[in-house]
Amino acid sequence: MANTYPPPAVMGSESIMSKKAHGTSSVPVQKNLRWKCDQDVADRICNFNRHYAEHSGYFTQLQDFLDEAKNTPADGEMTFYDSNTGKPLYYAPRGRTMDQFLKESRNHGWPSFRDEETNWDHVRVLPNGETVSVDGTHLGHNLPDGKGNRYCINLVCVAGRPDGDCGTQSTL
User: Over the stretch 13-61, which tens digit does the pLDDT of each residue have?
Assistant: First the structure.
């Protein structure tokens, strides 16, 4: 089913996910992903997958992630980077508290971002709801609810380190 999601969502075309040097991306996932995310799972989901996800609740089992979220100041936010390229994709929480972000994410099983938390310079939504980076990283899916667009995103796909960090590219 083809949909068009209203702005601020930025629609993308299927060509973003065309075959490249490493699946749908030109590079594999970074090594040393944040929060001790599993590199093999990340590479499979980010680059060789269009429909599947890490298991529901995966992010709740990563104490490093939960600790960073808990220690984020009330007026602060976490930046979530593409696990392949290191480009910033999401900033959370925005327009809500960290507790609200985590509660919604727990309720749905995956980190759940809203439009205002999305970096539309680097994120696109395909007509089927698949949410991807402009570089071909599968991120998750848009599952709108009564509050608007809700992007259920695999933590392994946004556990990268900022682009430019030395020695973080994998040789998978």
Answer: 999 999 999 999 999 999 999 999 999 999 999 999 998 899 999 999 9
- For the chain, give the number of residues: 172
CA distance 76 to 93: 8
Which residue's entry shows tokens 């089992």? Answer: 61
Coil, strand, or helix at residue 41? helix
SS3 149: coil
- Chain-centre distance for alpha carbon 52: 14
DSSP for 69-119 reads HHTS-TT--EEEE-TTT--EEEEE-SSS-HHHHHHHHHHHTS-EE-GGGB-
Q: CA angle, 136 as apex, 156 and 92 as ends, to 5°?
A: 45
CA distance 72 to 39: 25
